[in-house]
Specification:
This protein is mainly β. The chain contains one helix and 25 strands. It folds into two domains: about 45-135, gp9 (Jelly Rolls, Sandwich); about 150-460, no CATH class. The longest helix has 4 residues, at about 290-295. The chain is rod-shaped and about 125 Å long.
């Protein structure tokens, strides 16, 4: 065998240097290494078939067999020009997927989430472009049928199995970075509750505040969780890559003891195309008397009617729920108060998400109970929200305030005593109504409404 020893080999003319003839094999000696040649987009295919999770190396190709179940391929740390190839060995990626996972927070196809290969017989080559876009497929049409899921940021994020949950207890932004595809997920479920209203005030017994509007999807898009009783809510919402502003409605401010001033209604909550209306405040125990001030106000759920004695009529009308009207309804009406125009008067309960406020009938032992709230498991735990506020009771020591509705409704006050029980506020971030007051004197302000909440849920893997 002849041996040539030189420090450099250059072409005699032109710029092309050919080593060997057609059909020849050019081999580096044992222990030798090459530099300066660079890669031409090819890899060294490994002969060991991969059947379990493994970490790939730069410059290597792998035959992956998912006959016994899905296999995860962990990519190496990205460096510009790094290359990895994967081939469906047994034509089974469509039934048991190959999951490609980037190193740390690095991207694949500009997404910070795993790439799922689910096409039978697919062979994909990935090259690391840069930190901005991450790993890129260099073969045409190789990842178009891969599963992609919704991916987003914003609010407080928790997970429940394969589902991600974003909870907003105040204003924020739901930022979607990937809208997914039909093989993964493209829609989000939601629960949007507006702020609850405060209970009424006034000279005598006022109505409880109505709960904020309660709007929700049916839960079938993200795990079939218990969204509520029939009729279920609307369908889940499709999303696109954009920022969705989130508004979380404040609860209504209480009546501090005015005989003629209204307590505050709740504020709206919004997400995408969904707007939930604030609850309607409870009617006043009006001293003027002015019948209109005794009426509960309309809203997501309506406020309970107030009462005053003497007065004609002695009790006000109830506030209407589901105002403005949507389908399925976002709330219920308030309840009526009662008075014998001589010895007692009690306010009606505010409407809740699943029931009207209680109508009080003579002889009335207490203020009306607030309408019940509605339970949802959108956050992984059954939670009841949006209860109506209880109506107030009067006079001293003879009539109790009504209890707040389940889900956070505030209790109505018992004026005087013993004991004296002040009105209480609706629970924060439940959209519940506040309790009505029993009288303007003695510090018997009405209860404030509870602030709302927005929760968004989707399948992310």
């Amino acid at each position: 065998m002849s041996k040539i020893e030189v420090n450099a080999v250059e072409p005699q003319c032109g710029t092309t240097l050919t080593l060997g003839a057609s059909g020849d094999t050019v081999t580096l000696g044992t222990g030798a290494s090459q530099s300066g040649f660079g890669r031409t987009g090819t890899v060294d295919w490994q002969t060991t078939i991969k059947t379990t999770t493994f970490t790939a190396a730069n410059g290597e190709g792998y035959f992956v067999n998912t006959t016994s179940g899905a296999v995860t391929v962990n990519l190496p740390a990205g460096s510009v020009g790094a290359i990895v190839s994967i081939k469906d060995y047994a034509q089974t990626f469509d039934t048991a997927n190959c999951i490609v996972s980037a190193n740390g927070s690095e991207k694949i196809e500009n997404l910070t989430q795993d790439l799922t290969l689910n096409t039978e017989g697919i062979a994909v080559t990935l090259v690391y472009a840069d930190a901005t876009r991450g790993w890129q497929a260099v073969n045409s049409n190789e990842v178009t049928n891969s599963i992609k899921f919704v991916n987003a940021t914003g609010g407080t994020i928790t997970t429940s199995g394969d589902f991600k949950i974003h909870t907003f207890t105040g204003p924020g932004t739901f930022c979607v970075s990937c809208a997914g595809n039909p093989s993964g997920s493209t829609t989000v479920d939601y629960l949007v509750i507006a702020g609850g209203a405060a209970g009424g005030g006034g000279a005598d017994a006022s109505g409880g505040g109505g709960a904020g509007g309660y709007r929700f999807s049916n839960g079938t898009a993200s795990g079939c969780y218990a969204a509520g009783p029939s009729p279920l809510g609307a369908s889940a919402l499709p999303v696109s890559v954009q920022a969705y502003p989130i508004a979380v409605g404040a609860g209504g401010s209480p009546n501090p003891g005015s005989a003629t001033s209204r307590a505050g209604c709740g504020a709206v909550s919004t997400f995408s195309t969904i707007t939930s209306a604030g609850g309607g405040s409870g009617g006043l125990g009006d001293i003027t008397p002015s019948p209109g001030n005794k009426d509960g106000l309309n809203g997501g759920s309506g406020g309970g009617g107030g009462t005053f004695s003497p007065g004609s009529p002695g009790q006000g009308a109830v506030g209407s729920g589901n105002t403005p009207s949507v389908s399925p309804p976002q709330g219920n009406n308030g309840g009526t108060g009662a008075t014998d125009n001589a010895t007692y008067r009690v306010g009606g309960g505010g409407g809740g998400a699943s029931a009207t406020g209680v109508n009080v009938c003579n002889p009335a032992p207490a203020g009306g109970v607030g309408g019940a709230g509605l339970a949802s498991s959108i956050n992984g735990t059954p939670t009841t929200r949006a209860g109506g506020g209880g109506g107030g009771g009067h006079p001293t020591g003879t009539r109790n305030g009504g209890a707040g509705g389940s889900g956070g409704g505030g209790n109505g006050s018992r004026f005087g005593g013993p004991p004296f029980n002040p009105a209480t506020a609706g629970t924060v971030n439940t959209g519940s109504g506040g309790g009505g007051s029993g009288h303007i004197s003695g510090g018997t302000a009405s209860g404030a409404g509870g602030s709302g909440i927005v929760i968004i849920r989707y399948k992310f893997q």
